[in-house]
Fold this sequence. Notes:
By secondary structure, the chain is α+β, with helices and mostly antiparallel strands. 25% of the residues lie in helices and 32% in strands.
Amino acid sequence: MDKTPHDLAQMRRQYELAELDETHVAADPLHQFQRWFDEAVRAKALEPNAMTLATVSAEGRPSTRVVLLKGLDERGLVWYTNYESRKGAELAVNPHAALQFFWPELERVVRVEGVVSKLADAESDEYYRTRPLGSRIGAWASPQSQVIPSRAALEATWAAEQARQGDDPVRPPQWGGYRLQPLYWEFWQGRASRLHDRLVFQRTEEGAVWQLSRLAP
């Protein structure tokens, strides 16, 4: 096998910035996430709201992509996309999904698993109106995840939609928001010697209380 330009086996770093223990974690995982997210913003993490979304097809094939967190409250985590994209098609047949945030500046990962549902039209409309005009036109122009003939064809479609939609386009029906309602949170803090801290919140059988536990790294 040809060697890579770098020795992958020797690429590693020590994690020594912080620790995470049960006595300092918030009792509610949403509050813990908000605490860590605020710290990622203050640390000037590159796009701290970027998250990997994992979905699974009807055939059991997983796929991932990066989306942006655009809303967060006790109901769940929100992002927006094209409902006719690959992720939209997979969520339509299997609403179970996972999200992951990686903030290397703080040596932290957050994983979230849960059930996804579409937002109400009014909520998607409200967010759509806040987007830059070019992005609003792009939602009309891009048949996301479909094969297109060329970049030039995409740009021509965008220009045609710009002329058709004008300066105040309405939200296209195939575009809108999703919300993941968490059933599982994992907070990972890098530690020395790969003895990382992993604290997990899971719903109890009654569903009203979060149960905290520690996982081996």
